[in-house]
Amino acid sequence: MSHYKIGLEYAQQQDENDPLATFRDRFHIPKDKEGTDLIYMTGNSLGLQPKATKAYIHQELEDWANLGVEGHTEAKNPWLHYHELLTESMSNVVGAKPIEVIVMNTLTVNLHLMMVSFYKPTPKRYKILIEADAFPSDKYAVESQLRYHGFDEKEGVVLWKARKGEELANYEDLETILETQGDEIALVMIGGVNYYTGQFFDLKRITQLGHQHGCVVGFDCAHGAGNVALNLHDSGADFAVWCTYKYLNSGPGSLGGCFIHERHAHNKNLNRFTGWWSHNKETRFKMRDEFDQLAGAEGWQLSNPPILSMAAIRASLDMFAEVGMDKLTKKSKQLTGYFEFLIEEMNNANIKIMTPSNPEERGCQLSIQVKNADKKLHHQLTEAGVISDWREPDVIRCAPVPLYNSFQDVYYLVEKLKEILK
Ligand SMILES: *Cc1c(COP(=O)(O)O)cnc(C)c1O
């Protein structure tokens, strides 16, 4: 039995009782021509801008204006160590130890750097296992690594597919793949939360399975970071990568994050691409020394990082530190559960939610299949003031984000959908 209720009054009540409701005011909410808030459901694609971001970036612009190169050491937040200001809050967001986490580069770049270190193919064990509907960038990256090592990309990619007539990947099938082909698979690389279906995988279970069969296991957590409790350290995964412009609200194209499990922190025998930022911090500026590998995830850095982008990430992470992932995921389950309830109350035979109904197997996103619909539905939603995402052939993805979306957002979204489908 559901504890949710239909009607606007219930949504208003939920917003009044929501301990995180005030955070909405700390974001810029896009508006329509009349100045009314749009119903923004695409925080899974580009998170909204915290109002504080401007001040964080402004601080660095001011220090640069006033100090020039001296800002590296004399800025209010010295740029030389700026990335360290992000490490603790980022590790709390993804459930890792500080030594395991670094903010650097962008997601796909980090994925390649991780494969440099952790994809070590041999003639017998060279395949890479991904989920069948993996995000295109991940698929292209994996295929190019296979080609780079001289393997055929068609033969080298093993797909974890949903069964015929189903949308969600099934763990038994993964077990079967690993039992039958495990000794040919070098790397298991799965999207921690699938971008299309919204399925949140059991990272620990997949890691254990992969490791049992001698595979390295990594995750792309682009749709997980800031959305679900990833517990990366406990998962035992070898590595993970993510971006910060989706649920972590750091602005378009901002830097990505990277996790490398503690057990690899001091391993100097891993293949790596290196640069001066991978070198021991104490002696980096002597500039003459033999290369001295920095321990932990920091040791995978190459370059001195873009401070303005890091300032935007810091503005957002400070807010995440204030709220904490526990409260955030608690509200998220309420809000998405309410969304699911309202969709089911529509009782429309053409509508099917692809995303798992178990709250532990999803984040805030629901992927909704509307049979016989086409892109016109998406245009109609946009016209009605709903910013959502359309995936061909017939899927709308909506992500009510607990930091800034309200129960009333969800209520009005479903009302508008009803109106359009009438
Ligand atoms: C968003 C996303 C990307 C984007 O990669 P960039 O390198 O940041 O452009 C890659 N993979 C997944 C799974 C994503 O969701």
Automatic annotation (TrEMBL):
This is Kynureninase. Catalyzes the cleavage of L-kynurenine (L-Kyn) and L-3-hydroxykynurenine (L-3OHKyn) into anthranilic acid (AA) and 3-hydroxyanthranilic acid (3-OHAA), respectively. NCBIfam families: kynureninase. Its EC number is 3.7.1.3. One of its GO terms (biological process) is NAD+ biosynthetic process. HAMAP family: Kynureninase (MF_01970). Homodimer. Signal peptide: none annotated. Pfam families: KYNU_C. Belongs to the kynureninase family. Keywords: Hydrolase, Pyridine nucleotide biosynthesis, Pyridoxal phosphate. Pyridoxal 5'-phosphate binds at residues 107-108, 135-138, 220, 223, 245, 276, 304. It catalyses: 3-hydroxy-L-kynurenine + H2O = 3-hydroxyanthranilate + L-alanine + H(+); L-kynurenine + H2O = anthranilate + L-alanine + H(+). Its cofactor is pyridoxal 5'-phosphate. GO terms for cellular component: cytoplasm. Pathway: Amino-acid degradation; L-kynurenine degradation; L-alanine and anthranilate from L-kynurenine: step 1/1; Cofactor biosynthesis; NAD(+) biosynthesis; quinolinate from L-kynurenine: step 2/3.
